[in-house]
Amino acid sequence: MRIIVLGGAGKMGCISAQDLAQDSRVDEVVIADQDAEQARRVADLIGGGKVSIQEVDVTDSEGLVALLRGSDACVNATVYYFNLQVMEACLEAGVSYADLGGLFHTTRKQLEMHDRFAAADVSAVLGLGSAPGIPNIQARYAADRLDTVESIRIFDGIKPPDADDVQFTYAVPTIVDELTMSPMVYRDGAFQEREPLSEFEDYWFTEPLGLLPMHLSLHSEVATLPLSFREQGLKECTFKINYWGMAKEAVEKVRVLADFGFADEEPVEVEGHPVVPRKLMEALMGEHVPPIEAFLAPPANEPPDWTKEIVTEIRERKGMKTELPDAIDYI
């Protein structure tokens, strides 16, 4: 089996490539990335002889289709901005597709491609990461044991770093979007927009997380779960997280910059030169991204000091298919 990992030299992509390379069912993992030097570093860190690299520009449709042809599957670990383009290429090449999420709005557009993929007998799985991903599986597990589903509330708890720890551990453009774009919720049978960092509530997780402040965030689960469980009467779906796994102080710094216009994409003139504020902010934030070794090669016997717990809380309105302790199924 040959699997292409687009963006395989990035933070999430390198972990996907490593996991696939350790799977006995996979014969070859191709790290396809625009940054060939970084891709080579990742391949060397993974080792094992299964990993090859290929320089690629996902905006070059013809070149991307040529790369994909003959492969068994494509894992799209690029920034979600390219999801639709990559799906089109996979459809043309006849290659199964999976991604790590589309941050709600892009996911909604991707769902419109369902009939075309079905007609071509090509599979496409949206949101196959940690979250989205695990909450979707948890929701299915619970909903299959219930006659009706009233609400699905997702809580993504991450061990907070120290207040002075300013690090960005996944795609910086996505982080900026999550901090500045309005979260979407599904309530009373309709999608509704809310304010960023709103509807705070304290939620108890198991140790070492304990009690964490949780807030709404734009996320793909809210785009897909209401469709998956509408026949069971779903009325509410929300996603909450605690500062996206960053220190509250780091989030506040980025929010202040956004308030001053640094998240804007319209160029401003600086000493006669056009500067896109957002590009400048992302470049400076990129200086606080851990090296790739931090994701793939922790010191021996010293696992990363990182803990995550995802709770998908499902409530039902009447009757259950199997014996459960009460009318709430916690996973």
Could you please describe the fold and organization of this structure?
The chain is globular and about 50 Å long. The chain folds into 2 domains: 2-125, NAD(P)-binding Rossmann-like Domain (Rossmann fold); 134-330, Dihydrodipicolinate Reductase, domain 2. The chain has helices at 11-21, 36-46, 61-68, 83-93, 105-111, 114-119, 134-143, 172-180, 221-228, 248-259, 277-285, 293-296, and strands spanning 2-6, 28-33, 51-55, 73-76, 96-99, 124-125, 151-158, 184-187, 190-193, 201-204, 211-216, 236-241, 268-270, 273-275, 308-315, 328-330. The two termini are 33 Å apart. Mean pLDDT is 92; it is low at 327-331. Strands 7, 8, 9, 10, 11, 12, 15 and 16 form an 8-stranded mixed sheet that branches. Helix content is 32%, strand content 23%. The protein contains 12 helices and 16 strands. With 331 residues, the protein is of the alpha/beta class.
Task: Describe the structure concisely.
By secondary structure, the protein is an alpha/beta fold.
What distinguishing features does this structure have?
331 residues; Rossmann fold; Dihydrodipicolinate Reductase, domain 2; 2 domains; eight-stranded mixed sheet; six-stranded parallel sheet; 12 helices; disordered C terminus
Determine the N-to-C terminus distance.
Answer: 33 Å
Percent of residues in helices: 25-40%
Strand content: 15-25%
Write down the CATH class of the largest domain.
Alpha Beta
Biggest sheet overview: 8 strands, mixed
* Integer count of domains: 2
Count, helices: 12
List unreliable stretches of 5+ residues. 327-331
Rg of Cα set: 21 Å
CATH topology of the largest domain: Dihydrodipicolinate Reductase, domain 2
Mean pLDDT across residues: 92
The CATH homologous superfamily of the largest domain is called Dihydrodipicolinate Reductase, domain 2
Write down how many β-strands occur, each being a DSSP E stretch of 2 or more residues: 16
Which H/E pattern describes the elements?
EHEHEHEHEHHEHEHEEEEHEHEEHHEE
Q: What CATH architecture of the largest domain do you see?
A: 2-Layer Sandwich
Molecular shape:
globular
Which class of secondary structure composition applies to the elements?
A: alpha/beta
